[in-house]
Amino acid sequence: MTSLVSAYLKDKNDGAISLFNEFRDAALAAGTEVEEKVSKTMVAWKGKRTFATAYVKGKYLECTVDLLHAIEHKHLKASFPTTKKVVTNRFTLEPGETVDEQMTAWLKEGFEDVGPGTGSKS
Q: Pfam families, from UniProt (predicted)?
């Protein structure tokens, strides 16, 4: 874990940190050359373009996956267009829940379809 990520997670809820690390591992494994950007309020993963974000809010993990379509999932809170092509899908995970296989697959899809940029996609 980078020192920037460690600094971001300092003083966060242990259960939420565990969820964050699961999501982070899945985002970093979504493809080759995934870049991690850490700010004071959140962490983002990108190729040329951001395809996923996460932040700890109390004991919860709030995270997004950008895709070229809306999805349905038990932890999904909202899906909304962020460009003409990209739909941001927002999840909330609670301690005891997990980043499941479907979420991992969507992270890979996000990296492949949104991460390179969508300028040439139809």
A: DUF5655
Q: What sign has the CA pseudo-torsion 9, 15, 20, 21? A: positive
Q: Which two tokens stand for residue 102?
A: 């479907």
pLDDT 10s digits, 17-72: 999 999 999 999 999 999 999 999 999 999 999 999 999 999 999 999 999 999 99
* pTM, 2 dp: 0.93
Q: Is the dihedral of CA 77, 43, 26, 111 positive or negative?
A: positive
Angle 18-113-99 from CA coordinates, rounded to 5°? 20
